[in-house]
Amino acid sequence: MELGGRSEAPWPCQAEQTRTILYFGLFGCRHVYDGDVLYSLSLSFSLRVLSWTDATFSGSALCPTCDLGRFDLPGLRMLGLGLRVLNLHGNEFIGKLDGSLLLSGNSSLEFVDLGMNSLSLQLNLFCKFKNLINLDLSNSDLSLTDGVNCSFSWPKLSSLALSSCNISEFPGFLRSQHTLEALDLSNNRIQGKVPSGLKDVGKNSLPLLNISHNNLTGGLELFSWKNLLYIDLRCNSLQGFLPSPPPNTGMFLASNNKFHGEISSSFCNLKMLGILDLSYNRLSGKMLILSFDDDNANFLIVV
């Protein structure tokens, strides 16, 4: 079942019709009366996908700027026993998220997206979901608690988005994430040197790395990720010689840092490169002549 657009109609389902819902989606709906929604969903024991994105609610439990601490679905823990997708992206939810909403008895969750809300939560609330493939907590006030040195891991995790989460350290659990394909830690307060252990994160699988807009210092070792396609290092205070990206890199963004010295000639071998931004650094020497296939070259900035 899916509702979209600026729907202000009453909830269309009778109670007996909700018991076998597998998929429930609200996309961009306005002024949905949440009392009917919550009651109907509490009767469904077969739900696999719950997706409410860019929706606003009215009624007693939710509101256009909703305190998620007041969010109450008595049947959610029962219906959630088979839930695999929980997507609450961009609903202007606020408040502190506790474990009761996170389906404490659930072991089937594979996709969790709580991004683009204004939630306060602890990372260890998610450690019990061993089947997670995607976790997006962007734009949250995230507490790592034991997340810096914790031993938990998600053996299947391929995408992790912790952008704008107000964190100040690299999460320690990253060392055990060997299957990541996308890692976004941008727009945080992470300080100091990039830890050497980061090179082992998704070593044979990671194509996207975004650590831009932090307070990172020091130099970077050569990139050890063989499959990196997108690298974003912008707006830090990284120093030393500019590291050479892997040969299949398509986008390399390293502007607004303190890299110095000459640009390595290895950049001439990046045949898939479409976007290169090295502006606002302290680079010197001759500008390299880089040749690209017309289909790949979008624009080139080298300063």
TrEMBL record:
InterPro entries membership: Leu-rich_rpt, LRR_dom_sf, RLP23-like
Record's keyword terms, sorted: Glycoprotein, Membrane, Receptor, Signal, Transmembrane, Transmembrane helix
Pfam families registered for this protein in UniProt: LRR_1
PANTHER family named among the record's database cross-references: DISEASE RESISTANCE LIKE PROTEIN, LEUCINE-RICH REPEAT RECEPTOR PROTEIN KINASE EMS1-LIKE-RELATED
Domain of life (superkingdom): Eukaryota
Annotated localization: Membrane
Taxonomic source organism: Spinacia oleracea (Spinach)
SUPFAM superfamilies found in the cross-reference section: L domain-like
Record Gene3D superfamilies: Ribonuclease Inhibitor
Descriptive protein name: Receptor like protein 28
Main location: membrane
